[in-house]
Predict the 3D structure of the following.
Amino acid sequence: MAVTDAAPIITTRFGHDDGHTIERYLATGGYQALRTALGKTPNAVHEEVKAASLLGRGGAGFPAGVKWGFCPPGVWPRYLVVNGDESEPGTYKDRLLMERDPHQLIEGVLIACYAIGAAQAFLYVRGEMALAQERIAQALNDAYAAGYVGKNILGTDFSLDIVLHWGAGAYIVGEETALIESLEGNRGMPRLKPPYFPAAKGLYLQPTVVNNVETLSNLPWIIANGGTRFAVLGAESSRGTRMFAVSGHVKNPGVYEVEFGVTTFRDLIYAPVYGGGIREGRALKAFIPGGASAPWFYEEHLDLPLEAGAVGAAGSMPGSGAIGVMDETTDAVKAAWRIVRFF
């Protein structure tokens, strides 16, 4: 095993009991990246994100900076929609980001909206995530009161309203066009693409960027430290760090932020600082590499890097970053039946 010494980027406040408060956020450099961004042109901020090669962290893995560029020029208004639904079984990294560091997400939303020219953002949170909803609601109230959200932010001509909306627990609204349908008050069912590509015909049939919670939470660090510094971390096709939720038959289930594309499944499952190995010294039977919808992997796949290309070539996907570990006592048929029954 080779655990890298890359410092965490988006989980730095998880060790603070008050990491969700505006006082702790400001004391640890919060909203300074917003000031930096507002001192640049929107295009310069966009270029910084493209230089970072930040891939979407929701499952599809599309480059965020490239996605922003798909909005047709000169078409207004346009919107940012934050996908905080996180409905893939076994996935709980975004929930922790919303519960433990909501201001980091809000600052990321502000930076993204400034870059794409949006004056309104919608933060869609999964219905069952009551604590995340409460923490975000309080954080938004505090950010509005402090002048970080609202009209003429920090004395500039940039204004933004952020709407908090929560769903009713439908799995399908994790798909971006189904989420947009739900936001509009309709049944959450996917739209046909084409013609309903969100960047062209999204929310209210206006240009819309949909990014997930972890993706946006990286933006304050990228703007504060530079896109090229972010791109130094990770592998060639998977820059930066990424959060993975490890659950199942490991000694230390939890969420871990690791260097993207460099860390392997073996590292994450067996390293003492991460999963700590299989419970009670048992043998591994199988593991799910990217949420319940991903094809299973086995012992021979442990040394694959946590990276879409290698995982895809082996027949599965890193997906939503949820790794479910099953030991030798698992009834594999029953486990498969439970997953299929869910879907």
Remarks:
- The first helix runs from residue 22 to 27.
- The longest strand covers residues 241-248.
